[in-house]
Amino acid sequence: MLEIRPVTKENWEALIDLKVRDDQKNFVASNLYSIAQSQFGDEFEGHWDLFAYGIYDGDTPVGFLMYGLNFAHPSQQAYIQRLMVDEKFQGKGYGRFGMQKMLEIFRADERVKEVSISYEPVNDVARKLYASLGFVETGRIIEDEVEAVLKLK
Ligand SMILES: CC(C)(COP(=O)(O)OP(=O)(O)OC[C@H]1O[C@@H](n2cnc3c(N)ncnc32)[C@H](O)[C@@H]1OP(=O)(O)O)[C@@H](O)C(=O)NCCC(=O)NCCS
Hints:
Blueprint (H helix, E strand, L loop, with lengths): L1 E5 L5 H5 L14 H8 L3 E2 L3 E11 L2 E10 L8 E8 L8 H14 L6 E6 L4 H9 L3 E7 L2 E7 L2
Parallel strand pairs: 5-6
Antiparallel strand pairs: 1-3, 2-3, 3-4, 4-5, 6-8, 7-8
Coenzyme A binds next to strand 5, helix 3 and helix 4.
């Protein structure tokens, strides 16, 4: 069974062992960095509380995701900050599953009107995945990444 599970004191070490391919390292921070960052939140146009999860197939950790929430932000209240699937498990639907779970959480929260995401311009797999879920590029570049948004309400 596929599910996402919050990062806890029991599973964080298994999640930091998950790695992307060497040629993908520019696309995503390490899970070690992300889990550290999740303790403190992110400051970009206001404060974002961060929520980190492992993606699991049964009891096997296969990927990691993290999103931020900032209900004081005027346009986007949710921000997908990280998504990665370990190099051994890519191309099996886990990344799409992780995206769908995040969108389910946002759709169930009436405070979330719009979701944003950003990616390296050369990251075609990410761009196509997000576009297939309805994300539309805004033309804005954030820290050298292309921004795309999904309007939920
Ligand atoms: C991007 C990433 C999370 C996608 O996860 P994944 O589990 O490999 O992807 P999925 O199996 O769910 O596939 C999603 C789509 O991408 C396509 N895809 C996946 N890997 C691909 C590849 N190497 N080449 C071409 N297409 C690919 C799939 O065909 C699928 O499209 P479809 O549903 O239309 O058939 C994963 O490749 C990854 O961790 N990449 C490195 C880190 C990264 O780029 N993170 C995103 C930062 S913004």
